Amino acid sequence: MAAVATCGTGAGSTGSIAAAASKNNVTSFQRKGPRASGTDSGCSRLVSIAGTRPSVRNGQLLVSTGLPALDQLLGGGLAVGTVLLIEEDKYNIYSSLVFKYFLAEGIINGHTLLVASAKEDPADILQELPAPLLDDNCKKDFDEDVCNDKTPDSNIKMKIAWRYQLLPKMESGPVSSSRFGHYYDASKRMPQELIEASKWHGFFFPEKLSSTLNIESCSLTHGYRKLLQFIQNVIYEEGFDGSSPQKKQKNILRIGIQSLGSPLWGDDICCTENCDNSHSLTKFLYVLRGLLRTSLSACIITMPTHLIQNKAVIARVTNLSDTVVGLESFIGSERETNPLYKDYHGLIHIRQIPRLNNLIYDVSDVKDLAFKLKRKLFTIEKVQKGEVNFKKKTP
Amino acid sequence: MESVLALGGFVLLRDSVEWEGRSLLKALIKKSALCGEQVHILGCEVSEDEFREGFDSSINSRLIYHDLFRDPLNWSQTGEALPGGPLGALQAMCRRTHPGPVTIALDSLSWLLLHIPCTALCQALGALSRQHAHPGGGSPAEPVRVLGLFHEELHGPGPLGALSSLAQTEVTLSGTMGQASAHILSRRPRQRPAHQTQWFSILPDFSLDLQGGPPLESQPHADPHTAPVDPTAHVTFNLHLSKKEREAKDSLTLPFQFSSEKQQALLRAGPSQATSHIFYEPDAYDDLDQEDPDDDLDV
């Protein structure tokens, strides 16, 4: 097995064999491709924007979704220029949390935010973002969290597989802010000064409506049309599509749209099965994807698909989005009492992963994934079927 | 039942033919009126006289009734009917800015759904519950509640799902053997929804009589299917080791065992190993005699 040469010199971005041979006499193999902290590699020819990194598979520019566990499942992160669609769980608890993690990650990385909602004022949404874990003081609490879950059996020194003692643990704890994905404390709020230092645009649909609610103005494309115009204006004026080339520092625009397709947006796909403007939502997604592909932006949309009456619409919406993740929480369902799921809060279904400039994709071969939300950590794991307990039962 | 009124926001009362909800609605209205709140009623399904029947005069004086029953389409053109039809009436309620806690009762959301589109109704309900949370003057949030009566048998799953996703509290009426019960689902923001079942009855003067449990008949038996499934039962291999078996397992020599010195060297060296070492441990069949290399050839 060829040992990887120590790449601490930072020349890991180019795979030049000749250079390596003179440096180290162990091996001439060197890891090709940019390193994880690709933002500080000056020799990289890729655009170095804060909070992004190129994918190790095909060099696609990725941003973090705010949940490192979800980033792993999506193949490293969310590609810039794509849409992440979250199918909401029944009471909209975990999907709004994932939405907030995405926005919080944008604030930490210094990205510009665009928050659109028909239910809550975007300023209120920003006030409720979770606080980031940036200190090393938190690492101690985090390790305690992890240790509390470990069963006593795992502390036995391994006799047969002793080489695996050297391997690092699967979950790495929170580290400093220059890393790609960050961890958040869901019980605390983001500090006010971070929110004020960030740049954000809000779109609150009820404010944009005219003051008199005519039935005509509630036509389905009205809300979506206004939202698309707003997004287009922001992209153009701030230069995310490269339209103002003298801008020296490029940045990413993170767009968050909450509960798209709910009746509050004026769309009745959740109310009836045969609706008049059933193509309004799909047209919106098509135009939105066109806007995103030509700009440096990434979008998260939460959609209450459990309310959509016509299943064909859900299939069309899935095809028009890039990455689709469904959340199913156990609250109120009969699975809550099932001992198989007792450690978890819900199931997560990765319904679609895009093939961007690629013929294959990074589909994980694990299909039954469950998530659980501890205070400081949102983990996604494979459901442990038939968990066998080797402890002796006391009679 | 107190939580229904305490939480504020939009309360969805789902009733059916067997368990009607108007009396519960009137009981909740009476409770709010007794607390000194302003109560606005948008009456669509029954006449005003019939609605006010059963309330005494002190409560009747607090109720502000907007009548859509008498002339919903404004045919009489006398100017008494509410302008703008049902939607106009809802919007007029949105624009109220009277200070103090307020209760708005919509006598029936089903009637409104027949006359205005579902999306317009949802947007109006959203505006109602939001406008009072952020009044223009900047004063702290005042509790407002919107009580909506919904006949769930008249509608498909679509409007029901849309309205219950907007509701902060959902009360479903049912019951057994003449005793009514309310299943209350309250969704506080960012918290798990809480379920509660409350048995109650309504007295002739529309006050609520809360009861402890279902009437004398038997409780439903515990479902035998909810017994916890034990995955370690009925397994074809032995999962539990006796003490002797465990000792035998521990003392077993593994076939490919390094000496501990080699093991430590391998563990310590790790990825920073610069040179390679060779460790030789003679096996049981190895011949250490360097003189005759072909001794084991049996020639």
From TrEMBL, chain A:
Its main location: cytoplasm. The keyword Ion transport does not apply. The keyword Cytoplasm applies. GO terms for biological process: tRNA wobble uridine modification. One of its GO terms (cellular component) is elongator holoenzyme complex. Keywords: Cytoplasm, Nucleus, tRNA processing. It is found in: Cytoplasm; Nucleus. Pathway: tRNA modification; 5-methoxycarbonylmethyl-2-thiouridine-tRNA biosynthesis. Belongs to the ELP4 family. Component of the elongator complex which consists of ELP1, ELP2, ELP3, ELP4, ELP5 and ELP6. Component of the elongator complex which is required for multiple tRNA modifications, including mcm5U (5-methoxycarbonylmethyl uridine), mcm5s2U (5-methoxycarbonylmethyl-2-thiouridine), and ncm5U (5-carbamoylmethyl uridine). The elongator complex catalyzes the formation of carboxymethyluridine in the wobble base at position 34 in tRNAs. PANTHER family: ELONGATOR COMPLEX PROTEIN 4 (PTHR12896:SF1), PAX6 NEIGHBOR PROTEIN PAXNEB (PTHR12896). This is Elongator complex protein 4. The gene is ELP4.
UniProtKB/TrEMBL annotation, chain B:
GO terms for cellular component: cytosol; elongator holoenzyme complex; nucleoplasm. It holds the Pfam family Elong_Iki1. One of its GO terms (biological process) is tRNA wobble uridine modification. Keywords: Cytoplasm, Nucleus, tRNA processing. It is found in: Cytoplasm; Nucleus. One of its GO terms (molecular function) is tRNA binding. Pathway: tRNA modification; 5-methoxycarbonylmethyl-2-thiouridine-tRNA biosynthesis. Residues 210-231, 265-299 are annotated as: Disordered. Residues 283-299 have a biased composition (Acidic residues). It comes from the Eukaryota. Belongs to the ELP5 family. This is Elongator complex protein 5. It comes from Ursus maritimus. The gene is ELP5.
